[in-house]
Amino acid sequence: MALAGCKSPNSSFYTLSPDASLERTGAPLQWAVAVGPVTIPELVDRPQLVTRVSDNEVALNEFARWGEPLKSGIARTIAADLGQLLGSARVSVAGQAALVQETCRVRVDIVRFDSVPGDAVTVDAQWVVRVPGKPLPLSGRTVAREPVGAAGDDALVAAHSRALAAVSRDIAAAIRSTQPS
């Protein structure tokens, strides 16, 4: 009877989500787009949500976990955001669809993926876009800071989804800049 009150809390599982408010700019894209590979810092490459306590301390929440590997979730979210921004159903995560010759390839290296509960999240992403027919790739860097706005891990994850939408907007603008007029 005494042990009945010693139950562990239930785990919660989280996924990133595309930004439904994103709107297409310009004509629909001519090419297919493949997003990946995506790399992430080893610090956050784990099932648990990692939050920043201070400049030199992080916390792993054993009961707040990613529902899928984080790098897969980032690739899926950016692909969905790009599909919306570019007005194309031909945007996918690399490896999920057969690549055709006319495929724009997007590599994303997440340099920083910080979560500060009750404050903000920061996503620092370097990206490279290889466009069909262009000898040199386009590259860029997006640093997006999004306020959390509420307490709780769900607010942190939603803020990360909004930050990834900022990364997607920059990548979409780079892709659009290569389109013939």
Describe this protein's structure.
This protein is an alpha/beta fold and 181 residues long. 23% of the residues lie in helices and 36% in strands. The chain has a single domain, classed as Rossmann fold. The chain has helices spanning 70-86, 153-176; strands spanning 12-14, 32-39, 48-54, 57-66, 91-93, 103-116, 120-130, 138-147. The strands form two sheets. Strands 5-2-6-7-8 form a five-stranded mixed sheet, with helices on one face. A hairpin with a 2-residue loop joins strand 3 (48-54) and strand 4 (57-66). The longest helix has 24 residues, at 153-176. The protein is elongated, with a radius of gyration of 18 Å.
Q: Which helices and strands appear, and what pairs or packs with what?
A:
Blueprint: E1 12-14, E2 32-39, E3 48-54, E4 57-66, H1 70-86, E5 91-93, E6 103-116, E7 120-130, E8 138-147, H2 153-176
Parallel strand pairs: 1-4, 2-5, 2-6
Antiparallel strand pairs: 3-4, 6-7, 7-8
Helix pairs in contact: 1-2
Number of helices: 2
Mean pLDDT: 91
Proportion in helices: 10-25%
The assigned structural class equals alpha/beta
Rg over CA atoms: 18 Å
Low-confidence stretches: none
Key features?
single chain; 181 residues; alpha/beta; Rossmann fold; five-stranded mixed beta sheet; three-stranded mixed beta sheet; 2 helices; 23% helix; 36% strand; elongated
Summarize the structure.
With 181 residues, the chain is α/β, with parallel strands linked by helices. It has two helices and eight strands.
